[in-house]
Amino acid sequence: MFLSSGDLVADRRFDFARDLQLKGDLVAAADLLLQATELAPGFASAWFTLGEIREQLGERDAAIKAFRKAQVADPQDRHGASLRLMRLGAEPLADMPQGYVRALFDQYAPKFESALVGDLGYRGPALLFKAVLAARAAVRKPAFFKSAIDLGCGTGLAAAAFARNVDRFTGIDLSPRMIEKARLTGLYAELEVTDMLQGLRGRGDASADLILAADAMVYVADLAPVLAEASRVLASGGLLAFTAETHGDDGVILGERLRYAHGAAYVGGAVETAGLNVSLLENRSARNEDHAPVPGLVAVAAKA
Ligand SMILES: C[S@@+](CC[C@H](N)C(=O)[O-])C[C@H]1O[C@@H](n2cnc3c(N)ncnc32)[C@H](O)[C@@H]1O
Predict the structure, then answer these.
(1) Residue 179: pLDDT over 80
(2) Is the CB of 3 under 6 A from ligand 1?
(3) N or C: which end of the chain has fewer CB within 10 A?
């Protein structure tokens, strides 16, 4: 993510600083970035990169100061400075800035499927499909759904996995570029560029019989509001199925890779608080990082 300062000289200082950072000369890079911010005090990319370098140098207080400047310089927080502040313990855990998620996935959209499915062995949609089949089989009901909502639909991989079992798919995603890709699949009757909670709020009571979220809850800190809306939107007998990343403890943490990990007890508790019954909650990894499976959960919840 690079946001020009609008000042050619400051932008050039930034480019040199990035080269130095990549070569490992962090002190010189920080010096150049300070010069860039003197020339252009509202230069969000320079403040953010300075924050990263201060952190790499072990200068926590200076890193916090720089990340705060980046936040002020770009109120949409497209770099995700607030996430870095959460990781540094300078801000309480909160939801991801929408501007950050949108910028991340708009940039990622052209190479999303090759990077995720190819490089990281992504298997979230297949896990959800298997879990939904198992949950239906357990209650001796067929796994066919009239109306499904795909939260954080991305390029449409979950709709592809369920295509033969769903009559009408709606996709909701924050990233317009991901939605463009989803549209090209022809799998969705309706696509909406919005936050998943807002998208659900716009739906009628009992209007869907399946809600999916494949690798999307990792961008939501507090699951309670989304699960409560999902519960309202599901028809009686309907299912909510989602993947999550998890960790050894309970509660919610923001991991090193800036994705939230939800403890299994937290997920089970949040599902029940939303008025849904846990049909299935299993440890399953949806993707690899550094050639090892990332600890994950697959959850299926049913509306009574
Ligand atoms: C890792 S991708 C997964 C996409 C797709 N579900 C799949 O399985 O391939 C996560 C998607 O969730 C979307 N997303 C993240 N937070 C969101 C939110 N609060 N509301 C709507 N979409 C969100 C992102 O834009 C991105 O397209």
Answers:
(1) yes
(2) no
(3) C
